Amino acid sequence: MGIVKSLTGQTAYYGISSMLGRLLNYLLVPLWTRLIVPPDNLAIVHVLYAWAALLNVLLTYGMETAFFRFSTDPSCDRKKVGDTAFTALLTTTTVAMVLGLLFFRQIAGAIDYGTQARCLFYFVLIVAFDTYAVIPFARLRLENRALRYAVIKLAGIALTAAMNLLLICVLPHYGVMRIDVESVFLGNAVGSALVLVLLGAIGYLAVQNYLVYDEAGQVHLELPWGRRDPQQEQTDKPPVENVDIDRLEPESKLTPVTALHAVRLPDDCLWWGADYIMNTLAPEDMVLAVKRENGGITYDTQVSVPQNVVVERGRPLDCLKQLLASDRYTVARICCFADAAYARGLPETALVREDDSIWYDANGGAWLDPTDPTVLSYITSLVKECASLGFDEVLLDWFCYPAEGQLDAIANGGSDHTQILTDFAKSLRSSLPEGVALSMTLRGSGDNALTVPQLAELFDRIYLPAGEDASAARSQLPDGYDAETRLVVTAVEAPASGSYVIGN
Predict the structure, then answer these.
(1) Looking at the DSSP assignment, which residues form a beta bridge with residue 121?
(2) Which of 9, 123, 300, 412 is the most buried (most CB within 10 A)?
(3) Coil, strand or helix at 281
(4) Could you say which DSSP state residue 214 is in?
């Protein structure tokens, strides 16, 4: 019911805002026809806005669709995809806008609107501003920020209507300007421009984190994927770190924990600042991505990674240290074996086919080999680093074998999956200091993953993804297992009792 409620709410936000936007011109027609004389002048409004639909298709050239396609690909860096798409549209749209503004009189004459050329001038601005806003709005949809999306859309509608009233009703009444069809286009252009201002204001907090001052005091924009570690560039292949992966049995006693009331934070939130995270995003406990599903690391790790693995250098680490120094309970989420970036950087560590080519699952994702010493050392090092930084809990996600795709085509990875995963879980437990909890997200069952009873024995908490049947999981727990504390459900809103994470 929570998923249905969320879907219904988001549909309402997107639907109402989109419908009102499309209805705006029709709602304003009675005002225009009553005040603009002669009413025949309004024909240019309908003609040009008919062209606007085609121009929007041409100017976006499928970039919005490409943004959604590659942003949801685990092997792609979402931030880089978004900024690349926005930069492409910004460049092409600006060129088109400049050409349109330079030759608007000639274009107006060619379509028999030479006497109303200024209308075309404002129309060029409207189309350009709307195209600029395509990717920012798409990013809001991708991040499930339906309410923010709707607020900005509705604010744009209100501002456009207000500018029409101001330019057609108010200012002519005081003799400041005359009533003309140009006022319609001017009002709409100002409304579109103000929407861009709203989008820019929302993105300001994130952008300012990329502003860096050099030794000369000059400010420049330093994007996270543009940063390189000089030592990292020396080699594509990191050395296997000297990490002991002993097959030690953990103590049967689980780490003491209290009920978790957490928010899963966005992967790139460390760029937004600790104050904003604690005061706005996470009022209580927080789950922070350390190793993303695409393989990227969200802070300046000291663990060696292949060159193509994105590591967020600089400010994120400072933000992370501030969060960990607070009194908030913090959980480090590490996506373990589903890692396309590391697999492509070091193909010898990946699950492969008989011909040694990388094996890909049904979603096009690559996986690491849970028996490879380099992989085990890498994950162990990240877990130990999270503990040393001050995380209260380490959450292992995708701690399993793939379950979709041509599984029989995998040539390596061992045969006894349960034993391999169990041994590594025990090893990770032994690497953590006393008091740091070790948890895992339930991802299937059977040969590709550990069962609920096995998880209850090995881990301090079990996290259930959205849509997982919590009652079924509870029925499999051993007697005496504190499900209210140690079984964490993923929800869109806080349940009445038990441990939970708000988010996906």
Answers:
(1) none
(2) 123
(3) helix
(4) -
Query: Do residues 225 and 80 make contact, with C-beta atoms less than 8 angstroms apart?
Result: yes
Residue 391 near residue 324, CB atoms below 8 Å: yes
Domain ranges of the chain: 2-212, 244-502
Stretch 134-154: mean pLDDT: 77
Nearest residue to 306 via CA among 267, 339, 352, 354: 339
* pLDDT above 70: residue 245: no
pLDDT at 77 over 80: no
Query: From CA 52, how far away is CA 92, in angstroms rounded?
Result: 16
The model's pTM: 0.56
- Pick the residue with more confidence: 464 or 307? 464
Q: Using CA atoms, how far apart are residues 504 and 488, in angstroms rounded to an integer?
A: 13
Q: Cite the DSSP H helix spans in 133-209.
A: 134-142, 146-165, 171-173, 182-208
60 SS3 class: helix
From the list 395, 385, 352, 390, the residue with the least C-alpha distance to 371 is 352
Which one-letter amino acid corresponds to residue 373? P
Q: What is the mean pLDDT of the chain?
A: 82
Residues of the chain with pLDDT > 90, as a percent, come to 39
Instruction: Report how far Cα 448 is from the mean position of its chain's Cα atoms.
Output: 28
pLDDT at 486: 95
Q: Are strands 261-264 and 219-221 parallel, antiparallel or unpaired?
A: unpaired
